[in-house]
Amino acid sequence: MIIVLKPEVSKEEIQKFSESIMAKYDVKVNAWYGTHATVLGLLGDTHEVDIESIAAQKIVESVKRVQEPYKKANRKFHPDDTVIEIGGHKIGGGELQIIAGPCSVESYEQITEIAKRVKQAGANFLRGGAFKPRTSPYSFQGLRAEGLELLLEAKNLTGMPIVTEIMSTDHIDLFENVDIIQVGARNMQNFELLKELGKLDKPILLKRGLANTIEETLMSAEYIMSSGNEKVILCERGIRTFETFTRNTMDISAVPIFKRLSHLPVIVDPSHAAGIPWLIEPLSLAAVAAGADALIIEVHNDPTKALSDGPQSITPDQFDNIARKVFAAKQSLKNIQ
Amino acid sequence: MIIVLKPEVSKEEIQKFSESIMAKYDVKVNAWYGTHATVLGLLGDTHEVDIESIAAQKIVESVKRVQEPYKKANRKFHPDDTVIEIGGHKIGGGELQIIAGPCSVESYEQITEIAKRVKQAGANFLRGGAFKPRTSPYSFQGLRAEGLELLLEAKNLTGMPIVTEIMSTDHIDLFENVDIIQVGARNMQNFELLKELGKLDKPILLKRGLANTIEETLMSAEYIMSSGNEKVILCERGIRTFETFTRNTMDISAVPIFKRLSHLPVIVDPSHAAGIPWLIEPLSLAAVAAGADALIIEVHNDPTKALSDGPQSITPDQFDNIARKVFAAKQSLKNIQ
Amino acid sequence: MIIVLKPEVSKEEIQKFSESIMAKYDVKVNAWYGTHATVLGLLGDTHEVDIESIAAQKIVESVKRVQEPYKKANRKFHPDDTVIEIGGHKIGGGELQIIAGPCSVESYEQITEIAKRVKQAGANFLRGGAFKPRTSPYSFQGLRAEGLELLLEAKNLTGMPIVTEIMSTDHIDLFENVDIIQVGARNMQNFELLKELGKLDKPILLKRGLANTIEETLMSAEYIMSSGNEKVILCERGIRTFETFTRNTMDISAVPIFKRLSHLPVIVDPSHAAGIPWLIEPLSLAAVAAGADALIIEVHNDPTKALSDGPQSITPDQFDNIARKVFAAKQSLKNIQ
Amino acid sequence: MIIVLKPEVSKEEIQKFSESIMAKYDVKVNAWYGTHATVLGLLGDTHEVDIESIAAQKIVESVKRVQEPYKKANRKFHPDDTVIEIGGHKIGGGELQIIAGPCSVESYEQITEIAKRVKQAGANFLRGGAFKPRTSPYSFQGLRAEGLELLLEAKNLTGMPIVTEIMSTDHIDLFENVDIIQVGARNMQNFELLKELGKLDKPILLKRGLANTIEETLMSAEYIMSSGNEKVILCERGIRTFETFTRNTMDISAVPIFKRLSHLPVIVDPSHAAGIPWLIEPLSLAAVAAGADALIIEVHNDPTKALSDGPQSITPDQFDNIARKVFAAKQSLKNIQ
Lengths: 337, 337, 337, 337
Description:
Radius of gyration of chain A: 23 Å
Largest interface: A-B, 52 and 52 residues
Order of helices and strands of chain A: EHEEHEEEEHEHEEHEHEHEHHEH
Oligomer: homotetramer
């Protein structure tokens, strides 16, 4: 961490300030006295240093981090890829997985039919929403506990591990048999929820928030990991920009950046990123080309009857085609490397 | 609601679709058959109509709302300003209130000293963070329950109603004696939390999310209100944009827009919007000129020692000066109208 | 175009308004009288209808386009892909091209050496900046006319068609022997320049502006095309968002969207989109997977000595590797379809 | 300027690099050797140092400016406010000016009638568009040279100095008798145009670009000033964000920030920032409260017949009311200080 001090600061003040930092954190402080400004360098493990508190000091002009503020999620301290294995299927480590299923679980017939279809097409994980975050209180809020039951029945029937979203710490007990718990974009900085999920021994699929930076996403992963649960899967699902043609703007660069900065698996959700069914194929191929470890795709047996998020779902037939192409593309790309 | 159908749709399909809408919602459907397209108009109370489910239908080209999707927060159905009175002080209805206090409650001495100082300067409400949403798990997370206790002691000592942030439904019981419960920007779409706060009989200060539109903010207010609690205060606190000079971009237009679309009181947080102490005065004056009912300002007796968010706090002396100017400006603006 | 009128409008006013529209534009107006609102539908060729002038009418509540506002760039009126052939190389129509070269032309040795190297690696087009748009007036502004001369010498030596940016109508004569004239992101809405380029018989590479929507980009293409020059190549090069890790956010979705809405060729500039050399490979692969017709990549023989934009350039050796992979990926993707 | 070097760099490399910087720029380089990293500090006038070229060096980890990259626009080197006086009216220096008039000049009757009305209400400058930047080539492009003629006639008739937009260096001669030449948001980084305007002895009203930062706006001012013309007026007119209720998001913070960083006058355009007539009054009051030196407001005698941008214009009667309020508010705010 580099601290630029204001021009007029006395040596004594600098001395006192340096000592206060060393007393509080496990770092060494070196000073470089320039003609116009003094610069302090903090050496050691600075990830616990509160940058805002430093910046608030009267004598400080500006502060700049040199090290990343996350540690457990940081590839520098964990060079090998984290691979998360569930039911014999690996997320991370070179394989490509597809997580597929409807936006909302609606009925036994719906979820089991879709599960069978997407499994045939090569998806190893079943997704489905039970608790649904909806902008309007008047929109369908999901089948909630009943939806979880139906998902578990589909899991029993097909053997597919299930992925579903949690919206409150109050519901954690209900998620006992869920294989991967999803934290949605709107809860990415629900820190109380993250801390509780950090106490579980279960993979957490963490979606990047609509207005959150790559670094903030890694800091939210750090919340879960520093509470004890290191099985975090990062998910790019589009950010908010001025462009209105797509619902969100899928930030494809986030995939290679997450992979470089962190050892955690990285997946992409082209369904929510775009909100347009005909974009799912090109965006899935692009995600695989950019290095994604998995895709999470919404599939509905009858998108026009979906109780939520219908417009962005594809049919099982369309999914067959996309799955075939992305697995083939993944294979080709492996051969090219 | 106007539904544009695709060109090739048959009259029979249109008939069937219209009937299905009328069966599901309390609306009438009128069709206008053009040469190139058919347009349906939904008449009646459309705020419960699920626009996404309509848009997902195969025969639909696009959908456009004519009415707002919120009802209880809508000025059309409640033309008079909502005025929330707490401890004899009104928020809304033409008065200007200032809510002031430190970012984080740190000690008895700190919170009571600041409370006395800001009260003298004209602030009628005391703010202070007990549960703190911090990007990093390694940053100070607030004194939590102990912080609430200290706030209540400051309330007892000064008679000032208190405002503090809630971060989880798990903590609701702890907030029993809090006068105004704040929902932070990161939890604006924590719908499970909103629903629970909707069951209380206590004012809720709802901060606009960093990446949330004005309409989404009103929909979150609607969550609280439709659960039974109509005492919602809207707060503009800056949105995320590409500009990096300020921490966020304060959307001053949101003030008159909220006031026009809704009857709820509207307040502005210049401290978080900008993150720069010397911007608090001009932004406070601008907020008052744009019609804000209250300001919420961070004041710390020693900003350089603040445990969180120090850089954006001002001292009690600076606050005295700002409070004097904004009250005077409010008075002048009243005379001008 | 659908026009929703305000509730209280009389039949006479509607009649008069409808007639005024029909008198001004070549369209028919149909009215649908609802209980709460009247809706007008404009049938015919509405791309010349000024939506803002309609929206300004006192009796109008809101207006919604059903048709796109561009015509010559619109795939609906030109279903087949536009293929632009220069020096025997096709841009569009299924092939993958690479345009490569330095950010700025610096010397004869530099430009010819890079040209030879990128040609060997499979690039068919040479890029290089002569007139440079720089944020600071104190930064290197390019060799200007001399830079164009050097580019033409490299063209003569290698036979590669050249691509370079124009910044003013004053320079058009200088660009006579340039094969593809580039309009940079900052000039995408320099309409006077677009009109003049529309009078040439030469391909124009139109870069999407930093804050411009997909539709606005197509409208700028329409400026060139409606002036007579239909040889426009669209280029996605990243948009401005809140994310600061990358210089811009590459909007990968723009590639399939441009291809669907328009018949024009679509290329991607991963160098400027990211501003980070190690992102060029994954972003290039993603662009090809998403359907891009060409890539434009900055290559410098000594990026650390580049006079502008050095940080985002790669070396010829790195380029060899990337070119090999993207051509192989393109071939595999063709086989998969 | 602070340069953080990569960990593994040798002392010799550092020496060589430092010398190369001192040879190229008029600065001194000091090195501070830490345990994990070496930091270089550049002392002296760094505004000509090309930060990108420094960042491109292999041995450089990151670079951070301490000084601003603009000099002539910088308040540090010019502490007193720049005041621009035209026709006896001052922009800057404590007065409030209003520039008013139609979006487009349409006819002699229109422009002269509006000019007389806004003059009566207290506006000292007349605005009107002759060359119009329109997104669509099919929209009205302004009366162009004829529009300039009509503006000059209105100037002769009323004595009001005129403000109008230039779109190309080709038109500079036509603007000889224009009092203030406006550079529109879309041309803020049309650097060739800025350089030419820098050769004139005439005030330039520089509008901030839709996606441009405050610093970039000051750099564009620097282009004009470093070419010799120091009469630049900065204008905030809204930036592009995700919010769709308003056309743009007016960045009110830009006003006090521009005033602090620069000595140049700062004006606000509430008409374009919002695009909604009923927002002009609250946004104008907010701009004045935040410290704006002038407002530029669109007024049309018949907004529903305006040939461009009608929806955001107000009538002369509405303008009378707004002008009265903003002048009164300005007077009150002066008394409060």
